[in-house]
Amino acid sequence: MDKFFLKQNAGHLGITLDDAQLDKFYTYHKELLNWNDKINLVSEQSAKDITARHFLDSLTALRFIDKQSARVLDIGSGAGFPGIPLKIARPSLEVYLLESNRKKTSFLKYLVRELQLDKVIVVHDRAEHLMKNKAWKEFFDFVVSRAAFHLEDFIQFSAFFLRAQGQFIALKGEGVEPEFSQCVKNATTVKIFELLQYDTDVYPQGKKGKIIVGKRLKKDKKPF
User: Fold this and answer.
1) Rg of the chain taking only CA atoms, in angstroms
2) What is the CATH number of the domain that holds 146?
3) Does residue 172 belong to any structural domain of this protein?
4) Beta carbons within 10 angstroms of residue 183's beta carbon
5) Average pLDDT over residues 176-181
6) In angstroms, rounded to a whole number, what is the distance separating the alpha carbons of residues 222 and 191?
7) Chain segment 25-79, per-residue pLDDT in tens
8) Domain carrying residue 27
9) What is residue 112's three-state secondary structure?
10) Are 31 and 54 in contact (CB under 8 A)?
11) Which residue of 26, 129, 158, 174 is surrounded by the most CB atoms within 10 Å?
């Protein structure tokens, strides 16, 4: 992994990474490739460009997390995206990585130990199951996900997990427009969230995507 490439292009996103943080990303990159030989964490194609396609893409969400010590839930974390890159870039975050696949949770637990990340909790479960436990209700400041769910489903999860005035951040591809339009027209959704859409580029390849941000309104009917 080219540390200078990551440092330079993180800078384009307004993120400053020091040597210790770059070392963690280097270890992350190495361990991801090692484990990817045993279990399917990322596709063969994207494994050739982990820094841009996974690290930098995950970091595009950081500018929307405006609380330094926020409690963040990453639903469908997979290989740790976007939760672990966000944690490395902002160590003060408290991050919960929710993943239903046992092998992937094994990787996440190993990685958290290897990177010596504190305040990172790996949860082996499904969002639907956690929603049956009221202890998780309105527990998080931010809920994030990276193309893991249909936007409408992700909004339902977020409505349960987010505190008042919390936000969800969904990292999506360019093809999200039909999903977004459908949600904007949903009367229940717009009573709970103010929905915003942003374009994003991952430098320097110019990989384009969309970031959907839902800001929970102060008053809602909490139907979910």
Assistant:
1) 17
2) 3.40.50.150
3) yes
4) 21
5) 84
6) 9
7) 999 999 999 999 889 898 887 778 899 889 999 999 999 999 999 999 999 999 9
8) 3-216
9) helix
10) no
11) 158
Rounded-to-integer distance, Cα 17 and Cα 165, Å: 29
Strand partners, 182: none
CA distance 144 to 97: 10
Q: Both tokens of residue 70?
A: 């926020």
Does the structure show a pLDDT above 90 at 156? yes
Mark 116-149 as b/e (b = at least 16 C-beta within 10 Å).
ebeebebbeeebeebbeeeebbebbbbbbbbbbb
Looking up tokens 């320097």 gives: 204
Determine the average pLDDT of the residues in 110-135: 97
The single-letter DSSP state of residue 56 is I
Q: What is the pLDDT of residue 220?
A: 53
The predicted pLDDT at position 102 comes to 96
Please count the structural domains in the chain: 1
In a domain, 223, yes or no: no
Residue 222 domain-assigned?
no
* Interatomic CA distance for residues 150 and 29, integer angstroms: 28
How far is it, in rounded angstroms, from Cα 149 to Cα 154? 6
Q: Give buried/exposed letters for 57-92 (b at 16+ CB in 10 A, else e).
A: bbbbbbebbeeeebbbbbbbbbbbbbbbbbbbbbee
